[in-house]
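Can't attach files on this board, so I'm pasting raw text. These are the components:
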Amino acid sequence: MNNIVLRKPFPHLFFIAVALVFPFVYPSEYAKHVFALIFIKIILCMSLRQMLLTGLLNLSIVSFMAIGAYFTAVLGTTLGMSFWIVMPLSGLTCSLIGLFFAFPVLRLKGAYFFIGTICFAVCVQTFFSNFYVETFAGVPGFTPIDVPHIKLPGFELDFMSHLSYYYLTFIIMLLSIVIFYRLENSRFGQYWKAISFADRLIETVGVDLLKSKILNFTISCFFAGIAGSLFAPLIGIITPHDFDLLFMFILVMFIVVGGTDSFWGPITGVIAISILAELLRDFGQYETIGYGFILVLALIFMPKGICGLIERFISSKKEVIKTPN
Amino acid sequence: MGTQEILAILLNSLMLGMLYILIAMGLTLVYSILEIVNFAHGEFYMLGGFTSYVFFSQLHVNYFLTMLLAFVLIGGFAVIIEKLIFKRYREQILPAFMVSLGLVWILSESMRLIFGNWDKSVPVAFPGIIKIGGLSFSVERLIVTIMGAILIALLYIFIRFTKTGRAMRAITQDKDAALLQGVNIDFICSIAFGVGCGLAAIAGVLLGSVFYVSSTMGAPVIMKSFIIIILGGLGSIPGCLLGGLILGFIDNFASVFLTVPKVTIITFAMIFVLLIFRPRGLLGHE
Amino acid sequence: MKKVICIFTGLLIVAMFGGFGPGSAFGETLVIGGDAPLSGPAASWGIGQARGVQMAMDEINAKGGLNIKGKKYTLKLVSYDNKAQANEAASIANKLIYSEKVKYIMVAAVGATGRAIQTVTVRNNVFFSFSCWGKMLLGPKKPLNFRFGFSPYEMSDAYVQAVKKIYPNAKTIATISPNDTSGWDGAKGDIRAAKKLGIKCVAEEYYERDQTDFHATLTRILSKKPDILDLATSPMSTGGVILKQAYEMGYKGPKAWNACSMASVAIKIAGKEAAEDLFLCVNWNYLSPKFTLPALREAIKKYEDKYKEDWDYYGICAYAGAQIVFSNMQKIHSIDPAKVAKAMVANQPYDTFLGPVVFGNAEVYGVPHAMLHPLVLSRVHNGQLENMSFGLHPDLAKVVGDWKFPQ
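---
Top answer:
Structure tokens for the assembled complex are below.
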């Protein structure tokens, strides 16, 4: 919730500065690729977290990412439209589809909502695997995918290089974080948090429950679509398998390990686990089992996530200062 | 497609349905008593399969003894896992789910690393083909179906008539009241987890010889179990029976007339619609 | 708060040197990349190929490495696990090419990952050899792509011809294959080949990969009474189950299975009776004296002694292919991928433990980059593989038409 970390802007500017100069301090192409992916995953996890504020675990986020990715791939590559038009359009399309889906699914609560979103996720994955294969390419994957480019008089930039893509995803992620932060601390955010523990009650003060939840849902879908839009040109190929429930569970894992209670939980979780995963690659065929052990151990020793651990650490220090010697 | 063939398909779906129901019942038992969703449930099924490979296939232990061994060994292992890992997550569905995801990787990869990359086969325990009314069925499948039905009945008897079973039902109705009645919650939770996973292990032994044993055989099974539980209602054991029969029917029968992707979409769309109008599932309770 | 910043920067420094840096040693090492599934259900393919390439490397390193214009190069294989996922494959390709600075990726399996890898290798002029099926993986726009091991375009004709020789009266065929591109490739390849020989396809069924029960599908197929049942691209264990169920449902005729590269697994799962009269073209009895070379038997024994496991066909082909690549590097004294690729086509035919090898099939792909070796037809009889005959692809026959196994 509102934790100590939010109050002083200094640490945030520090991290932003580090992120901006990082590519020049450590000129590794692959590192830029990994971080671009990390930024995309952060956008997804923040969308997931926003829905979690209302107490709903939305597993269809990965499907909206898929819709955004395929939308971008088809409009951008097959139809040759400019990425800068297609990206916001894919976000809006996902919001629209999300709106239609929201009406039935938001009538469900708790575990049943969870299951309803799983149903949607499976249907979307099956759809892209087997239907309209000429358009979407099905299981073997849609490739190649055009990268965004800017053509202005006197300035031309093709986002082929990892450096350009790094900054592109970073800026969009930053904008998303700002938007999510403002939303969470606004009137809407308060309603959402209230929904998670007293939804009947807040209706009595005149809040339209359904509208509030739908707003939350469609915003999450928008950002999931944007994330999908950024994902497609970065990887260069999209297959339905990339947007399966396993990936969705991994996104949830990022939030749980980072800390569900903190705004910074998803970001911490994504960065920590993604970097750990890169270190594990050297284990070859032992990578997956290593990943499993780390996950189990992390959850056993950090039940509130990394941010929870930091919180406890900081508040225990504060207590030491407070008690007179 | 003649009526004979349709009948064959129906009977065939009944056969496998029994075992998926058994596995789903184990999962639902764990959910109703520990209030966690164990995504690694399919892995205990897989461990049962490997138990069969080691004891029945390699060490030539009697088939029924292997089933008992699987229940005891894997069920016992499950109890240890419960005490070490899941105990701290009672009623916290999300962290428990994540931990079970980690367990899936640990268990399936360990089996692959220990037993090698190639899938294993288990010899047919009951060879032969039997002809009923002009249709051929393997004796093996018939016996496996009967065993499945017997185990489901045994589970029902256990929950309905034994003291431990009554304690379990008490916990699902009202945990605090059960505590007041002197029920040892921790002990019952461990037993429930052990029994649930042990049943999955026995199913692994049974299906291991019908199909094959693989370190990744748990994954499709857990998905099927979830569908059965959702259809039948979270936390309802009779619901599993109904859900399993419906799923078996849809899977086998509908794929005769439609392509599998269409069947998948129809199944999940149906589940979705079912949830809207009857969120508790067919027989579930809130 | 300051502590948090310190911890964060500390982690970042660790990650920089651990995670993104090259995993290889410094010095005159030629690093070859591997981007394949090393865990999970497809692990056997990735690991089999990685071991094959490693064996070829060990042979060269034992002799002191490659001698390129006086400079010594030790060969090293760096493989990462892509878990059979396309986006992982693409990321790993980026890591190999940008961090490890590889110019060769020689371990890859599973079609969608092949497509993902090539988006990165083609852009960076990196040599890419694989076992993945798929027509679009080879072509004039991908001059550095090579396939080691047969795909339906290389084997279907010779395969179906060989089966027809044994069953001259066969008039109909039915296929049952997974419902994805490699599944379609396998089924359609054999159907095309069968059609050329006057065998009609009476059923073309596809199933989802996670299906375990085939009662309904087999009911449909067997009602059409096919003379040959073709499992096409079915995976080993699933195929074993299909064979078993077909037998239980009364089918006792001949079976074909063009993707069966590890028959022993399938035979054990299906049982001896169900696997009887199964004809294979990418798995034969490697230790039998019939239709094999002594060098192949040696290679298999070496592998089984070292790894205590069976070796699959595509792993064996990765070994053969790697030997060819390294010998060409040595011959032309260059490790430049473009030069090596040209040399591989120019310096054929090769004398390998599989028999004579050429790179051909330009008719299908536009470039002759598919490895062709003598196709050995084997038959499962009493649970064992019997080598029956061999055949040469037209491109191979053109070069070594009158070659025979030393019998």
